[in-house]
Amino acid sequence: MKADSTQPNAGPTCTVRLLGRMDYDTAWEFQKSLAERRACLQVPDTLLFVEHPPTYTLGLGGREDNFRTPPSELARLGAVVRRVDRGGDVTFHGPGQLVGYPVISLEGRRGGVLRYLRELEEVLIVALKHWGVQAQTIRRHTGVWVGNEKIAAIGVKVTTRHITQHGFALNLSTDLRFFDHIVPCGIPEKGVTSIGRLTGYAPSLQQAAKTVAQAFGEVFHRCMAWEDASAGTDGNPS
Q1: Model pTM?
Q2: Do residues 56 and 180 lie in contact, with contact meaning Cβ atoms separated by under 8 Å?
Q3: Catalytic residue ranges
């Protein structure tokens, strides 16, 4: 069952699913299954939203010495540590953070992965304006920044069939002390921030997902159609 689209953007439909709190491995397997179905034209472009329990991920080019606390110790503290197949270095996912996983086709689009990254940054900059946060990009550093502090990390993968996986993590009310255990994104000279820290107010996961989905539709020229969250995560959206 699908709700009405969130805005009247002309263009292809992009399904939106808010999965709520979900462990990283389950979400990762769901992404991969959905990407296979998208490549076979069995499902439309899809934007997944999720909140993870404490999880540290290290991208393909990431360096393990960017962990300030050894991964084995982080595991004993209750955090999951995973090496994953996205770009970028080490980052943190956890409560109070909106994680977005676009599973969309880039086939036939000019600009490739670089343009896609720039557009994801623009989505988050547009969304942040809704909460009075003026954010920007920084040359040579992917992600979205407020001054010298990163408010949203981005790391993606594009399959050989031009389907995107992984995505972005926007700090809403994240406990920023989790980032003390790592060199966030491998950039020691810059910090991390959140909407709550900057404004004194943090939107809920649902509120943030709605705002970011609307911005995604504006930037990518998609008609965003929300899917019933009861649809499960077996890779077969109904």
Answers
A1: 0.91
A2: no
A3: 185
